Amino acid sequence: MRRISLRDSMFSNNEAAIECVIVNAAKVSRAYFSGEFDPDKLAAPTCWSSTTQTPDADVPEDQVQSRRCMDCPQNVRGSSGNGRACRFSQRIAVVMLDDLEVVYQIQLPATSIFGKTVRGNMPLKEYAKFLSEHNTTAIAVVTKIYFDESAPVPKVFFKPVRPLEEADLNLVTGLVSHPDTIEAITLPSNERSATSSPFGIVEGYEHPTNHS
User: Fold this and answer.
1) Beta bridge partners of 99
2) b or e along 37-74 (b: 16 or more beta carbons within 10 Å of the residue's beta carbon)?
3) In this predicted model, what pLDDT tens digit does every residue of 18-69 receive, in sequence order?
4) C-alpha to C-alpha distance for 184 and 179, rounded to whole angstroms
């Protein structure tokens, strides 16, 4: 799977911003790693939840941290530095404008998913809401993803650039359920966490049924 890293507040190509098309997205999930967490390495979490409410059924019994995420000691602020040891994340599948047939995975931390729009800077959920209010969808526009230069940790915002041309829209629409896309938004079996979900019900996105 091709990945675009957010390490050191720079994308994998050493740029502070990219323009792409968001093809699909997973549901928000959460995971607790008892060891040091490295988002760029495949590693099995200790406990995880694809619903963010309760541990998944395939979490080994001796690794379950709590029966409910809301009661979990790893969900308490301060359980990891100033934050929570159990972290939210969301995977999105994107394609770049110079090759719309190659799917990349970006794993977003909670700071890039949640929060309010400030001076036009939108985290993912706010961006999805913005697009919905303007009767469009993420797959129908070119999106700029750029770093918050003032944040002490990697954090990105989302901004619409322009509508996608019809021929390109037809091409990327065919990628919504492509195996590469599903792989990009689904944790591998050795990382087991969130399962893939239809684009039409993910965090405000809506799969366009027609493009007229």
Assistant:
1) 96
2) eeeeeeebbbbbbbebebbbeebeeeeebbeebeebeb
3) 999 999 999 999 999 887 656 556 667 899 998 899 999 999 999 999 999 9
4) 9
Closest CA to 2 of 90, 80, 78, 96: 96
DSSP 3-state of 155: coil
Q: In terms of DSSP bridges, do strands 29-32 and 156-163 run parallel, antiparallel, or are they unpaired?
A: unpaired
Q: How many CB atoms lie within 10 A of CB 5?
A: 15
Q: Which pair of structure tokens corresponds to residue 98? A: 């110079």
Beta strands in the chain (DSSP E): 17-25, 29-32, 47-49, 86-96, 99-109, 141-147, 156-163
Q: Is the CB of residue 105 less than 8 Å from the CB of residue 91?
A: yes
Task: Using DSSP, state whether 102 is helix, strand or coil.
Answer: strand
- Which of the 8 DSSP states describes residue 28? P
pTM above 0.85, yes or no: no
